[in-house]
Design a protein that fits this description.
Strand content: 5-15%
Low-confidence stretches: 1-10, 259-263, 376-387
Structural class: alpha/beta
Oligomer: single chain
Number of strands: 10
Distance between the termini: 20 Å
Order of helices and strands: EHEEHHHHHHEEHEEHEHEHHHEHH
Mean pLDDT: 83
């Protein structure tokens, strides 16, 4: 309802930094951002001074900088079966066939070279060492995220949006890691702002092992979270006095969980679950160390972090490829974030007030306020233009009703 308002009157420079976390993390961030948008007065999340995104957070940060509200992201990415710009998470797990074929083509010459070396120098090395070079034929990624880049390219090419960092009204930085140097690269910064935003998102979210490195101007880039978790320092260096941060990557702790996983243990989930827990623990520990350093490096600045609790089983075990699962997690993030803000209100209110932001206690205390609407359309209903027009009108009325409730003007 308020994608673009008048610019803020207060002098404080405000930024937002979004961490990674895969599709699950992106969904959580959208729900958390919707909670912030509804619960904080005096701030427009689409009208901040600087946006920083890493990995899946780059996906969401680029949307915010392009004027897409959290509520619109819910419609696009969560309620995608009903959206006019539907996003299908399945595009993230399409096999990287081109990578498979290019690597497969290297097997014959590699095998021939290894065999020749082994036969011409018998006894100088064992069989395993001689054929070690065949590891070069292993694909660098299982899935292909090129379809995600194409989706974002279309989305940011719509009227009122842009896929060009230089044409944005707000500063946007999407962080990736240069594979050959190991250094963080801030796409959107001077000298690295000629890259399409959609391409920068693809690079920032190219988690090694899952997605192949992304080639940009002759260099190869992978996930920006390899260097830091949040990169909130980018916003602080841009002069932000307040940086709102969302980190969805928290290790699960079944000892404090109020929702029992049952007899199942994490190890029963196999390698993906074990790797996820390990990655979360490393990322979270590193992020806490980074936040502590900000206090010394940027005195007088304020960094406020929002993240799920370690006992949040819904966050850890949701199936993002399930339509119901995505909706449930987004609503869960919305409710949990509102509850967190309410519980931390004595801490947050003074810090936010210093930047012209107030807490909307009525919204925070409204137990009946929901984000994700009941599903009212099926795929078959989109078969005619008349029904599609009616559905669009329903979308607008739903958004209007949510806006009225948030602003205390609920329908009688």
């Amino acid at each position: 309802m308020a994608a673009r308002g008048s610019r803020r009157a207060q002098p404080s420079r405000i930024g937002i930094a979004l961490a990674g976390g895969g599709p699950l993390g992106g969904i959580y961030e959208i729900g958390a951002l919707a909670a912030l948008a509804d619960s904080l007065e005096g701030i427009n999340l689409n009208d901040l001074d600087v946006y920083v995104g890493v990995s899946s957070g780059s996906f969401v940060a680029a949307g915010l900088a392009n004027g897409i509200t959290p509520l619109e992201m819910v419609r696009m990415f969560i309620e995608s079966e009903d959206a006019r710009e539907p996003f299908d998470p399945a595009i993230l797990v399409r096999p990287a066939f081109r990578e498979y074929l290019s690597r497969a083509a290297t097997v014959p010459p590699l095998l021939l070279a290894s065999l020749k070396q082994f036969l011409t120098r018998p006894g100088s090395q064992d069989l395993l060492v001689a054929f070690q070079r065949l590891s070069k034929a292993i694909p660098t990624g299982v899935f292909n995220n090129a379809d995600m880049e194409r989706f974002l390219r279309r989305t940011f090419s719509a009227p009122g949006r842009t896929n060009d960092f230089r044409r944005l009204e707000r500063k946007l930085f999407l962080v990736a890691t240069d594979l050959d140097s190991g250094l963080a690269v801030e796409f959107g910064a001077p000298g690295a702002d000629d890259v399409p935003i959609s391409r920068a998102v693809q690079a920032s979210a190219a988690l090694p092992g899952l997605f192949p490195p992304v080639r940009i101007n002759g260099r190869y880039y992978v996930d920006g979270a390899l260097i830091k978790t949040l990169h909130a320092s980018v916003a602080l260096r841009e002069g932000a006095g307040l940086v709102l941060c969302i980190n969805p990557l928290v290790p699960f702790n079944d000892r404090t969980s109020d929702k029992r996983v049952g007899a199942r243990r994490l190890i029963d989930g196999g390698l993906p679950v074990v790797l996820s827990q390990t990655f979360r623990a490393i990322i979270h520990s590193r992020m806490q160390a980074g936040l502590a350093k900000y206090e010394q490096e940027f005195p007088g600045r304020e960094v406020i972090l929002f993240e799920p609790r370690g006992d949040d089983a819904d966050m850890f075990f949701t199936n993002i490829f399930s339509y119901a699962g995505r909706r449930r997690l987004c609503e869960h993030a919305y409710q949990r974030t509102r509850s967190e803000i309410l519980a931390r209100r004595r801490e947050l209110a003074p810090a936010l007030a210093r930047h012209g932001i107030r807490l909307n206690l009525r919204v925070l205390q409204d137990e009946d306020l929901n984000l994700v609407r009941p599903s009212v359309r099926s795929r078959s209903m989109r078969s005619t233009a008349a029904l599609d027009t009616a559905a669009r009108l329903a979308d607008g009325l739903d958004d209007l009703e949510h806006w009225l409730r948030v602003h205390g003007l609920g329908l009688a």
